[in-house]
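re: ur question from yesterday

yeah so i grabbed the chain u mentioned. its 751 aa long if i counted rite. heres the sequnce exactly as i have it in my notes:
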Amino acid sequence: MAGGKGKSSSGGRDHPVRAEPPQHGTKTSYQEKAQVTQDNENQSGIASTIETVSLVLIAAVAFAIRLFSIVKYESVIHEFDPYFNYRVTQLASEKGVDAFWNFFDDRTWYPLGRVVGGTIYPGLTLTATWIHWFLKAALKLHPVEVKDVCVMIGPLFSSFTAISTYLMVRQIKGRGAGLLAASFVATIPSYISRSVAGSYDNESVAIFALTNTFYLYLKSIDTGSMFWGVAASLSYFYMVSSWGGYTFIINLIPIHALALLIIDKFNWKLYTGYSMFIVNGTVLAMVLPVIGFNAVETSEHFSGFFVLALMNGVALVKYLKRTLTREAYKKAFRLFVTTSVAVMGVVSLAVITFAMTSPTLRWSGRSLSLLDPTYASKYIPIIASVSEHQAPSWSSFVNDLRLAIILMASGIVSCFRPLTEGSLFLVIWGVLSVYFSAVMVRLMLVLAPAACCLAGIAMSDVLEVLCRSYHLAQPKPEDAGRKEDGQARRRGRRRNSGSSQQRGTIPRPLALLGISGAIFALSYHLFHCSFLGGEGYSSPSIILQSRTRDGGVYIFDDYREGYSWLRENTDYDAKVASWWDYGYQTTAMADRTVLVDNNTWNNTHIATVGRAMASPEESAWKQFRALDVDYVFVIFGGLVGYSSDDINKFLWMVRIGGGVYGDIKERDYIGEGYYRIDEKASPVMLNTLMYKLSYYRFAETVGRDGQDRVRNTKFGNPDVKLTYFREAFTSKHWMIRIYEVLEEPLLEQAH
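ran it thru and got these structure tokens back, copy pasting raw so excuse formatting
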């Protein structure tokens, strides 16, 4: 009994000593893990909140930074092309979408007219129309006018672009890089220039469609989901409907897919996402009248089909290798290669034969200009004459991209650490857009989001190293106990993580200095972008300003003054001739019929106007009378120093006219050594209609020895007389000069 009691008693003593502590310790461990999990969830929630708030603020900045034009001037449409977009948006809002699709514009390209529904990219117009309808029908905001919606399209879609850029870069490199990329694209001057309030042009919505398409495509090949593939094709359809630059997408994505095949990264996710995008995107693009069968007949689209065929071949080979025995696979592979070579040979021959039916091998003129920068100047002067089709200067890259172009190269390096499908896409996008933007300044707009994505990744990596170095750096231990504790902690971290956090760090003072420098660089970048957005890109082309000696602002409103005169003082059916740059503005603001406009679809019609402007007065009068022209106007900047006038554009009129009519030769208009308008100018030049309409009565204002303030020289013929044209209106600053085409010459001057 005693032994039993002793044993029982001893077992009772052992239980609380040996068994209780492990149970208590286990319970504590569970509590610690639960506490750590709870802390991580709280930190994740805080991080998500900060991330969301930051993204909302970035979108707000993207919207607000584009409102300088309204604050400084007024709510007005900018530039030239947006006036046509505004005009057809008014039609669609008032008469419905069906009226838009069936609209035949008899106020332009007289006497031919233009089928608008079949020759326009409808995305911008329909977007503004539906937003206007939504504001009026759903939100009951009846005072909202169509013009107000058109003016705000650019800032609104800039916010959307910032969000889509964030989503794309976050998927590739994480949330920090995504937020920085979004902040860059929200404020980059190159993008502001085409999306400022009032810039109602196709690019204002197309850049959002471009970045959103890229994000959804990368999402589809990352998940292998057919849903995301279809979503990418729908976004591509919106891009196609908005801008002719969609060909950049339909070539960039196949190049990326081909690169993945070359580096042996083919998988079923890539096949699903890419095939869904190409097939659905092509079918949807063919729905648009402006595209139609061009989606399968032009060379710009062939790369997508080629890569899709190649991908199917790779998929078949991998399937055979996985399912057949080695010997059977070898036989099947030889048969497949033989058959593929034969089929591809026949198909290639058919494609080449089909392409050779076109003088340009089924390439558009703009595409050939990108592949061969000298092509347009040699064969299509109408393309080369557009200022945004010229090559940019080196200063444009720094001025319009600023910090992004500096960090872009570092971003490309970061994309290789590690190289994923998404980071490879950014590298290809960045490299190709640099080339294309170097050929054509307009494509700086395509480079801007790529540079912002890469710059965001580079800046994120820099800040990560700096912040980690600042956080991990510890002061020197004051006693051995702390030193031992630190050594123990380091040994524990080495066992757990191999001291990975210690790699790539710098001393704490340098980290603090680097963080301060990064904050300064980002602040200066924002200041530069705000200044350039407010001063450089907010001025509408129809309203000009200059600074007075006392620092005040002086407004030149000659364009609207001239168009108002045409609208109020000429017959509704009057025909107005001018250079094609002003066609859209004339039909929208003056509501008069024009011979040519900015659509530039008929080179012969434009050449006819150029020939008339380059002809002597009598010959030009006969040509304009044959075209039923009632008024001719020219833009002249010689009095106030406005350099974008018709005298500076005149050689392009000669080149375009000479490309169709052999009697117009550029050398006849060159003076002693170069193009000039002074007393040493060519006699042919001094006798042209353009010269006479520009300098008529100019000597009465500046004197016979006065100077042209644009060319900084005396004008060659101060005694200009007009016989077949009569001055009808000259604006306050002589920037727009309107002349009536007489039915009969003035007899007193004819003799």
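noticed a couple things. Residues 2-64 form the longest helix (63 residues). also The first strand starts at residue 104 and ends at 105.
anyway ttyl
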